[in-house]
Structures are given as C-alpha cells and as structure tokens.
Design brief:
Length: 390
C-alpha cells in the first residue's frame, strides 16, 4: 500500500521481520519488490532489536522506480559491528522473479562459493526422493508413552503391540544417527480400526465400539485422557474424527514410515540429518525423506559446506523455518554414480557403526567434509571461509 501511494521516484522505508528475505513463502514479496521498486539499502538486524519481541528484524529502503541494479546490503545480525556487504553479484543484474530464490547477504567470496555449489549440484527436489512431515498427535501425553508403559499395555493385552510403534522426537535427531529415547507412539488413525473404509465420513460410533473391543488395554489408557483429547482442534475432534484418534496420522503416506529415511528437525536452529531405520515413526516437528541414494545424501546434507550454505541462504534462528521442506529441497547436491558414491557411503557406515558403540566420529566426519569440498571444487581460501563460519 505504501508503494502504491508513493509518487514515482519516491522513497519508502520499513522495519519488519526478516523472514521474507529467505523463506519460500517470501518469494512473492521479493518478486513484488523486483517488479515495482529499486531497493536502495537492506540492513539485516537479527534479533535483540525489541525488548519485548524475539523476532529477527530488518530495515529496507525502497525507491518507486524500475529495478535495474544491485544494491547495498548490511548484515549486523551475526556481528556487533557493521559489515558492508553486497546483496547480489554482478550476475544478479539479470535477476528475475523466476530466478529469485532468496536474498542472501554475502561478500564477494561468499557469493563465489554459493555459485560453485549451485553450479555443481542438482536441487534435492529433482532427485528421486519424496519429502514428508511427521505425525501430529494433538496431545502427546496420551499417545506417546515410555517403554515401561508399552510393556504394561502389552502385558494387559498382547494385541496392544500391533499399534504401538517406536517414535523419534525432534530432540532425538543428531548428525547421522538418531538417539532413541525408548518412547513409543500409540498409532490410532481416524476411524480406527475401520480406517480403511472410505465410506466413513465424520465420527464413527461403530469404529469406537470395535476399537474398545479389539484393543481394550489401549482404549482404557486413552479413556483416562478423553477430556483433553476431546478438547483438541474443535473444528475436527468429535466432528471429522474420533476423540481417541491421532490429529494427523499421515493418511496418504503412512507406508513411508516403513522405509529407511532421512529425518531432520525443521524448527531447530542447527540442522542435523539422521538416517532412520525402517518402521520408526517421527513427530510432526520433523520432515523426512524417502527414496534412493539416502546414505550418500546424508553425507552431503550433514557436511560443513551444506550447513554453511543453509545458514547463508536461509539464516538461523531458534524456532525459525530454516529447516522447512521448501528450503531443504532447494539445496544443490551433485549427482554421482554408485561407484563415485562409495567413498561417502563407506565413511557414513563407519560413522553409524561407531555411533552405535558410543565412539567418537569427529575424524570420519571431517573426512567427509574434505570429500565434499573437493566435490564442489572449493579452493583453500574458500574452505577457510566456510570453516570459519560453521
């Protein structure tokens, strides 16, 4: 609205959240600036600007005229003093809404590293993989139980074992290998045990009666939490699905949990990618990948270089969206033949074996980092920049 009200060649300045600069959902905003204004100055302020708000902020000064050239940008989010940097390299003079993926503030050498990575890699979305989100219970206290409680329920009724499955939380995700905390999910789809009956619309009393009869121990356990479970999303619970069912149970892709996968905590400030075994479920705080070349992909995704790139193009803030699927699926990864993947796969397998035994894997992870630097063709100077900032 402010830009609309401006006279031609008028100026407008705003202080806002900085998420639009890098997030996938901010692309339409960035496109609007490129199509309707010439940005003059961008200052990424980071956090701590407002006493009573944790939001990361930025200042943006715009001119109402056609976009023709690169502009100054300053990043003071990571350092106490101002860094005079440039938002775009010269190639960015040709930037268009179609190529406008993010506004990453970077020095000339950082832009060079980013360009090398993009030139060598193919965006993850174009690999033979699929990306999904974990399961939302709506009330963890009822559905996520300890190993001891699992054993009690199975002792009361052996059939309980059929719908109790191991689950990982976001905090369990570590670099390469997750740390299982002996937590288990009572996996109850909508309309269970009639969940495969597509004719059921809304709450089914018949399904509840059958559930109570077939799984009495679990039904009794959930019944203790009925009030809280019934108080979940009022537009859904007791209308679209039964009070005893999970809020989101991956109806269209629950079979994907039966496969090996790579999972990461989408809301954590530091992104780590774990290779997860078959038949392990994950919570909704995570995304996960299934498909081919997962061991090789885990090596690249966990490398210092990809960590550096993700920090550059997305930024890092606790509770931010650096790990949402829109950002991860754009990471450029070089496609290699099975033979060329072998050095990475061998190192990852050694890391997993050592982590299983609680042994240190620092040297092995550093070896993967060196392979990745070579893969993308970084110079010694560029490697120093990456390692200084990871």
């Amino acid at each position: 609205k402010g830009i609309t009200l401006l006279k031609q060649n008028g100026f407008l300045g705003f202080i806002t959240s900085n998420k639009w600069m890098r997030a996938g959902y901010g692309k339409t905003t960035r496109n609007y600036f490129l199509e309707n204004t010439q940005p003059q100055l961008l200052v990424d302020l980071g956090s701590g600007i407002f006493d009573e708000a944790t939001v990361d902020s930025n200042l943006l000064l715009l001119k109402k005229t056609a976009f023709t050239h690169a502009f100054n940008a300053i990043d003071i989010s990571k350092e106490k003093h101002v860094r005079n940097l440039y938002l775009f390299s010269e190639q960015a003079l040709q930037i268009t809404p179609e190529t406008n993926e993010n506004w990453a503030i970077a020095s000339e050498i950082e832009q060079s590293i980013k360009a090398k990575i993009e030139a060598k890699g193919v965006p993850l979305k174009d690999w033979d993989i699929q990306i999904y989100r974990g399961i939302l219970t709506g009330y963890n206290e009822a559905f996520i139980i300890s190993g001891q409680k699992k054993d009690e329920l199975i002792a009361q009724d052996p059939k309980s074992a059929e719908i109790i499955k191991p689950i990982l939380r976001g905090r369990d995700i570590k670099r390469y290998k997750a740390e299982f905390a002996d937590l288990w999910l009572i996996y109850v789809p909508w309309h269970f045990p009639l969940h495969n009956d597509s004719s059921i619309v809304g709450v089914s009393q018949i399904a509840e009666e059958l559930f109570a009869k077939k799984y009495p121990a679990i039904y009794k356990h959930l019944l203790i939490h009925k009030d809280a479970l019934s108080s979940r999303n009022k537009a859904e619970t007791g209308i679209r699905y039964e009070w005893y069912a999970l809020q989101r149970w991956a109806a269209n892709y629950y079979q994907e949990f039966e496969k090996v996968k790579i999972a990461w905590n989408r809301i954590a400030s530091i992104k780590q990618f774990s290779l997860i075994e078959k038949d392990i479920l994950i919570q909704d705080s995570m995304h996960f990948i299934t498909g081919n070349n997962l061991v090789y992909l885990s090596a690249i995704l966990n490398s210092n270089l990809l960590k550096w790139l993700l920090n550059l193009i997305v930024g890092v803030s606790v509770g931010g969206n650096a790990g949402n699927s829109d950002n991860i699926k754009m990471l450029p990864i070089p496609p290699l033949s099975e033979t060329d993947q072998e050095p990475f796969i061998e190192l990852v397998n050694q890391i997993l074996a050592k982590k299983e035994n609680g042994e240190d894997t620092t040297a092995l992870e550093a070896a993967i980092d060196q392979l990745v630097y070579q893969l993308y063709g970084l110079t010694d100077e560029e490697i120093k920049i990456v390692e200084k900032n990871t």
